[in-house]
Design a protein that fits this description.
Length: about 200
Amino acid sequence: MANFLSETFRTEPHSLEEVRTSLDKDLADHKQFFPLLKEHHDFLEESISVIMDKDATDFQKQEHLERFFRLVEMHGKAEQEVLYNHLKANPEKEARLEGFAGQDEHDVAFQLEAELTGMGYKTEWSEEIAAKAKVVAGLVKNHIKEEESTMFPIAEENMTEEELEDMRDSYIQKCLGYLINDRAEAIYAGNWKMGTHTDADNFHH
Ligand SMILES: [Fe+2]
């Protein structure tokens, strides 16, 4: 009950360390593939809502944009390597089209990430950056909605229970890999907490 309440009323976004812990747990619990992807969509939504909120401060948006991209990279890349590749090779045309469309939308999001990185969003903030951040957050928000309402049901229809279980395991392994890659690249992986960026690297695995 206590856990249920703290989940229900939690207002803090999950830190990347909490995301990593949840991956270990979901792997051990054999969480089903699509509920797992939806859980990761919820992690993304925690930042999308701030980036798109006209009342959020510039600092909040900047922090959340970086968290958002770390999660887009983890979830998006793992999802395309596992689920989209599978869909693109599916015997059913409907499933293949979903895979190609999903990939195109990810490509646009990664393109916008590259543009925002080029604009230096991690160290400065401007109206142009805020506008582009809102575009990419809105794009991913719609993409998530579309996946949950259309792609996932089509994928579920066209895949066996065994395939879904294999995809779940391989998706989680890839997610862990992408989070660990963050460690080499940045200070961020284990330490993402609102307002408390730190250079300390205490990311253990
Ligand atoms: Fe997704």
